[in-house]
Design goal:
28% of the residues lie in helices and 22% in strands. With 116 residues, the protein is an alpha/beta fold.
């Protein structure tokens, strides 16, 4: 990999994901852009690209391995498999309301001294 300040350019998605603590998939690809085995235990992955039954940038096997799956769409989150391994995945569908709700909860927790 070639370093650019604090960023690294990798020749492939697998090279970028291998050994990373955090992986962000932000593509328009309708097929998985990396193999599930490339993402190691302890990694957090965020995906913001397509997430339809027949078109997705994230390999479904990776979702089966995840210990935690979060999503800003309850309907989409309910469709994911039960978590299994030490990997976390956040699937963003771009709902701005999610950020507003989280910010409101954090502000409220400052007032009460407890995080909800």
């Amino acid at each position: 990999m070639q370093a650019y300040g604090t960023c690294l350019a990798a020749p492939t998605a697998a090279d970028a994901a291998r050994g990373a603590d955090v992986v962000v998939l932000a593509t328009t690809s309708t097929v998985p852009v990396l193999d599930a085995a490339t993402v190691e235990p302890g990694t957090h992955l965020t995906t913001v690209g397509p997430k339809w039954t027949g078109a997705h940038e994230t390999p479904l096997e990776l979702l089966r391995r995840a210990a935690v799956i979060t999503c800003d769409s309850p309907q989409q989150a309910a469709a994911y498999p039960d978590p299994a391994a030490d990997i976390t995945v956040h699937c963003s569908v771009g709902l701005a309301g999610t950020e507003v709700i989280i910010a409101a909860a954090l502000l409220a927790s400052q007032e009460t001294g407890e995080l909800r």
